Amino acid sequence: MSVVTSESNSSRLPPSMVERLTLILDQFVGDAARLSLEEVARRTHLPRSTAHRILDQLVRLDWLEHSSLGYGLGARALALGGTDHTHTDVRILAAPHLHELFLRTGLTAHLAVLDGSDIYLLDKIGGRAALGVPSRVGGRYPASATALGKAMLAWLTPEDVDELIGAGPDGLSLAFHAELNKVRMRRGLATERGQTHPQYACVAAAIRGREGPTAALSLVGPVDMRVERIGPLVLDAALQVSRGLFPGVRRTRAQALHPLNY
Length: 262
Fold this sequence. Notes:
Helix 6 (88-105) runs antiparallel to helix 10. The chain has helices at 6-11, 17-26, 37-44, 48-60, 75-79, 88-105, 147-153, 158-165, 172-185, 227-245, 253-257, and strands at residues 64-67, 70-73, 108-115, 118-125, 140-142, 190-193, 200-209, 212-222. The chain folds into 2 domains: 6-76, Orthogonal Bundle (Arc Repressor Mutant, subunit A), CATH 1.10.10.10; 85-261, 2-Layer Sandwich (Beta-Lactamase), CATH 3.30.450.40. Helix content is 43%, strand content 20%. A hairpin with a 2-residue loop joins strand 1 and strand 2 (70-73). The protein has a 6-stranded antiparallel β-sheet with strand order 5-4-3-8-7-6, sandwiched between helices. The longest helix has 19 residues, at 227-245.
């Protein structure tokens, strides 16, 4: 029987610092939106002290960011995905609310921003439940086909929506605008069942300031989940993040229902 010594184990580790940096960054692709130091060390097989030192360097250089929930992709990494803004503030403020939504429901929580006709996924929290959800941090998805996208598009003017999504010559644009109006009538709650992926449903709400939507958060679960039970939780989380980002903004009930009248 052969014995694996620490020397033979260390010989299998990437020899250069660049390779070790890359090895760690690779762990944050896909479902690994948030990782602890211990998770990084276990996945990379790097010594804990080595992983900690490299993580600190990546945080200082903005490749990663660190919060009480662990390590996540930072400004530089997200910028490489093609967005014009890093959205660091909204990610930091939304993270504990996403975590709370996951803990209370067991469903996968997402955070996204609107980027042209797409949404760009900033964060994903869901533990083992998230492994089966086909989404990834840094991924792009059509805004018109996702609850996250509809939650944000509902707070734009019809002209802005047509410019972003495109007005269909066959009249589909009218149906889509009617759907966005329903989102506004539900106080901003957007839903979709099986539209993006047949086996999943999604409930989303926008994070908003006086100028319109900044981002949106959502919960994803089985296609037959009861959205009326989790909808209020999503709406409340979005409102709390909105208040954290824009503490000076106060809405009346009429403005909440009809924000295009600001």
